Amino acid sequence: MTESKQTFIYGVYEVLERKPKRDVPSVSIIMPAYELEDRIEWAIEHVEAAVGALTDDYEIIVVDDGSNDGTYLRALNHRRNPHVKVLRHRCNRGKGAAIRTGVRYATKKYSILLDADMEIDPRSMRFLVDGLKSYDLVVCSKRHPRSVYRAPFVRRLLSVTFNVLVKLLLGIRFGDTQTGFKAFRTEVLRRIMDVVVVKRYAFDVEVLAVASMLGLRALEAPVRIVQRSMFRFGEALRMFLDVLGIAYRLRVKRWYQRKLRGLVDGRAL
Ligand SMILES: Nc1nc2c(ncn2[C@@H]2O[C@H](COP(=O)(O)OP(=O)(O)OP(=O)(O)O)[C@@H](O)[C@H]2O)c(=O)[nH]1
Ligand SMILES: [Mg+2]
Question: How many angstroms separate the CA atoms of 170 and 32, rounded?
Answer without folding.
Answer: 26
